[in-house]
Specification:
3-stranded mixed β-sheet; Aldehyde Oxidoreductase, domain 4; alpha+beta; single chain; 21% helix; globular
Amino acid sequence: YGLEIQDTPVLAHGKVRHHGEPVAIVAADHPETARRAAAKIRIDYRELPLITDEASATAPGAVLVHEGRDDHHIGHVPHPNIVHRQPIIRGDADEAAKRADVIVRGEYAFGMQDQAFLGPESGLAVPSEDGGVELYVATQWLHSDLGQIAPVLGLPEDKVRMTLSGVGGAFGGREDISMQIHACLLA
């Protein structure tokens, strides 16, 4: 699944690509039972080369995040580890420089920025008598979520009924799926 590019596995298989990528899900009738079941999960990890910045991700010979795939990007990109490239050009820089009193040159890097909404990433999925599922979740794009969830579950969209439970201040942060598919699978 994925918002623009469907390159996100529901659970990692064979390779974990990033910290926090789901590797297992647990269902239980009681929180303590779930904790005990989760504690029994054993996964053997092999340390992989790290990609920690753009320079190392796009260097010649860089480890590929999605090796063997050529469908995980939008438009032309100069390197397989780049998903999307959007140059922004406004005005004539040379002409503006001629009129400038001061020119500051440098290279600036900013860490990843993301919204910090206050509400938790949570939801409730309930199996329906007709073989479908009802999902109560805080999201910004119900229809986009539905278009990603239904195919993963192998259900037609009319069997996945979604109810929006208050979003609060998400500022765009709830446009991506987090736990919706996992909750539906557990239901």
